[in-house]
Amino acid sequence: MREKPNKAVKRQLAHIRRVGWVTILPQLVYQGIFGWFPILVAFIVAFQKFHIIGACTFTGWDNFKIVFSDPLLPVVFKNTVYYTILSLALTFVVPIIVAILLLEMRKSLIRVMMLLWFIPISSMAGIIIWKMWYNVNYGLFNQILKALGLPTLGWLNDPLLVILCLVLPGLILFAPGLIYIASLQSIPQELYEAAELEGCGFWGKIWYVTLPRMRPIIAMMLLLTVISKMQVFNEPMVMTGGGPGSASRSVVMEIYFRAFQSLKFGEGTALSVIFFFILMALIYIQRKYFKEDIDK
């Protein structure tokens, strides 16, 4: 007797669900071990005087009180926020503008730029090279200023310039520019033709067609960039070590120094928990107030 179609469909759907769970199970286990479990441990350690070897004692809110009373805390947060804002201004907006302008040029040039963006660049090697260029004695930038007859600058040794110096390598090492190119190429040409019929010029097409269609990509890249820049560590650690003074010390560097140099794991974890809630608040604000629907 032939099986009824509705039963066959139900069996097929059940099989698809089983295959889905089997496929996703390794990722759930991995995320649980290396993602959720460390977060849970962090919330426990933040309320303890933690020792790697020996007994740990519950201290309540003491670690948080110590962190909040530290006069260095406003400095590291100010440095981190300043670095993030400067990075967004210089390394987030510029690739969008470059990608839009590239589409108005020859296709051969677009291919070249996509290849340059696609070439893998070691960020650590780039940071080391930029550190050499910033050297006040033999660095490339001061040599250029000398050749032009201009006064040399302190670069990484100048508290007023050090954050800017940490941001500038991102102009070259910002790989997501390729994502914008791909997003722009997916916009239907008919929309531009319709905009021309409505009397839109070059800037009008960008404002009414290009930017609205890129809104989902821009919103997601903005969120990822803010989270990434707020967690900056490699650039200041390699280039300055947080100096001069504390002019370039970031929040993540402060967590590292407290936990792994001073061995105050409870204080370092307490600061990381505070930072966790700040990042979660930024994510909530972005998801709530930055609309990604291209039709709104």
Characterise the protein shown here.
A two-stranded antiparallel sheet has the order 1-2. By secondary structure, it is mainly alpha-helical. A hairpin with a 7-residue loop joins β1 and β2. It has a single domain, classed as MetI-like fold, CATH 1.10.3720. 20% of the residues are buried. It is flat and about 70 Å long. It is built from 14 helices and 2 strands. α3 runs parallel beside α9 and α3 runs antiparallel to α11.
* H/E element order: HEEHHHHHHHHHHHHH
Shape: flat
Determine the number of helices (DSSP H or I, runs of at least 4 residues): 14
| Low confidence ranges | none
> What is the strand tally?
2
Tally of individual domains: 1
- CATH homologous superfamily caption: MetI-like
Spatial strand sequence of the major β-sheet: 1-2
- CATH fold-type name: MetI-like fold
Task: Give the overall average pLDDT.
Answer: 84
Rg of Cα set: 25 Å
Query: Strand portion, in percent?
Result: under 5%
- Give the biggest beta sheet: 2 strands, antiparallel
Q: What is the CATH class name?
A: Mainly Alpha
Computed structural class: mainly alpha
The CATH architecture term is Orthogonal Bundle
Q: Report the helical percentage.
A: over 70%
| Cα separation of the termini | 54 Å
